[in-house]
Specification:
- The structure holds two protein chains of two kinds.
- Chain A is an alpha+beta fold.
- Chain A folds into two domains: 2-77, Alpha-Beta Plaits (2-Layer Sandwich); 88-164, ACT domain (Alpha-Beta Plaits), CATH 3.30.70.260.
- Chain A has helices spanning 16-26, 54-61, 102-112, 142-156, and strands at residues 2-11, 30-39, 42-51, 70-77, 88-97, 116-125, 128-137, 158-164.
- The radius of gyration of chain A is 19 Å and the shape is globular.
- The two termini of chain A are 34 Å apart.
- Chain B is of the alpha+beta class.
- Chain B has one domain (3-182): Peptide deformylase (Peptide Deformylase, Alpha-Beta Complex).
- Chain B has helices at 32-35, 46-61, 152-165, and strands at 67-69, 79-82, 97-117, 120-138, 145-151, 180-182.
- The longest helix of chain B has 16 residues, at 46-61.
- Chain B is globular, with a radius of gyration of 16 Å.
- Classes of the chains: A alpha+beta, B alpha+beta.
- Chain A: This is ACT domain-containing protein.
- Chain A: Residues 5-79, 91-163 form the ACT domain.
- Chain A: It holds the Pfam family ACT_6.
Chain lengths: 170, 187
């Protein structure tokens, strides 16, 4: 079974999801994990699906990209085995005046500590820049990481908090 | 232990401040005053009473505003006004009140809910807050220390304002990477 990583991005309009999903359904591609969201007027889809060959999907999506408004990419990926999370889940929130390099500097601190970002979103609202990242940290490192984040944030003139992610399971 | 055991607001109203409040401009993030812990105040000081009146006046002219803290009008101090009267998510309602140097004494029944902020006008976020809360603080003017027992939306508003006084925004407490929402849509 082929596993494919597909991205579609383009100027937002009604029907992008339906158009892409129809093509995939027609080819028998089973959509597994995906995120689809609007980013400042552009609609972005990132998805993993299993089924047909990459070339077939690429060819089937080509007509959608024909007007130059949508860009689609398809590539075959190696399926990953399930691995259990060993880190401790934390949420890092950063906010402050927009400037170059906030995400780069803050995520470098996480990476250097062995932290693995599992989800991240950013928002620019006026001059306010907000980053929220979910990160798995090696057990017992959170305090040190928080101190390093605070120091990097101070250099950037932004604020940061690192809190344990909500562990409730209902 | 229940609400009756505490010295509540009594018959305090903003009119007890005895000074007319001035409507002040509201500060938006990013701004240093919103990110630094506010200082403790003398609740009986004339400037604190004036600040309290200004907070009430500014809150009242701001549509949909259920609470306003001193840092939001540019003053790094632990003073805030709250009024959730008539809000559909409110249960216990204490009307309009101002507290100085307020602290959370007890917090329980945590629940995630959506909230916004006049100082972050373009975003809202999902934040976990206690649905039942005991808060202690001093009334401006008399300086009398009161304990408020509250719940639901008034509890959320109090935690939001106490956070402001500690230099925190709701953005510092959002539940996850997809818990922030844009009010405006950019097309």
């Amino acid at each position: 079974m082929n596993e494919l990583a597909i991205t579609v991005i383009g100027r937002d309009r009604p029907g992008i999801v339906a158009d892409v999903a129809e093509v995939l359904a027609r080819l028998g591609a089973n959509l597994t994990d995906s995120t689809m969201t609007r980013l400042r007027g552009h609609f972005a889809m990132t998805l993993i699906c299993v089924g047909p060959a990459a070339a077939d999907v690429e060819a089937a999506l080509a007509p959608l990209a024909g007007d130059g408004q949508l860009l689609a990419t398809v590539r075959a990926v190696t399926p990953d085995g399930e691995s259990s999370r060993t880190g401790e889940p934390y949420v890092m929130a950063v906010h402050g005046a927009d400037r170059m390099g906030i995400v780069a500097a803050m995520t470098r601190v996480l990476a250097d500590a062995g932290g693995n970002v599992t989800d991240l979103s950013t928002r620019l609202a006026g001059s306010l820049y907000v980053v929220v990242a979910e990160v798995d940290l090696p057990p017992g490192t959170a305090e040190k990481v928080a101190a390093r984040l605070a120091s990097t944030a101070a250099d950037l003139g932004v604020d940061v908090t690192l809190r344990p992610a909500d562990p409730d399971v209902l | 232990m229940n609400g009756e055991d505490y010295a509540g607001l009594g018959d305090w109203t903003p009119e007890d401040l005895g000074v007319p409040g001035e409507v002040r401009p509201v500060v938006s993030a990013p701004a240093t005053v919103l990110s630094r812990p506010g200082g403790e105040v003398d609740p009986t000081a004339e400037e604190t009473v004036r600040l309290a009146a200004d907070l009430v006046a500014t809150m009242r002219v701001s549509p949909g505003c259920v609470g306003l803290a001193a840092p939001q009008i540019g003053v790094g101090a632990q003073v805030f006004a709250v009024d959730v009267t008539g809000h559909p998510k409110a249960a216990t309602v204490h009307g309009t009140f101002v507290l100085c140097n307020a602290t959370v004494v007890e917090a329980s029944r945590w629940k995630v809910g959506r909230e916004g902020c006049m100082s972050v006008p373009d975003l809202t976020g999902d934040v976990k807050r206690a649905g039942r809360l005991v808060v202690e603080g001093a009334l401006p003017g008399t300086g009398k220390v009161v304990r408020l027992v509250t719940d639901a939306f008034e509890a959320r508003a109090l935690q939001h304002e106490i956070d402001h006084c500690a230099g925190l925004l709701f953005l510092d407490r959002v539940a996850g990477a997809h818990a922030i929402y844009q009010r405006k849509v950019y097309l």
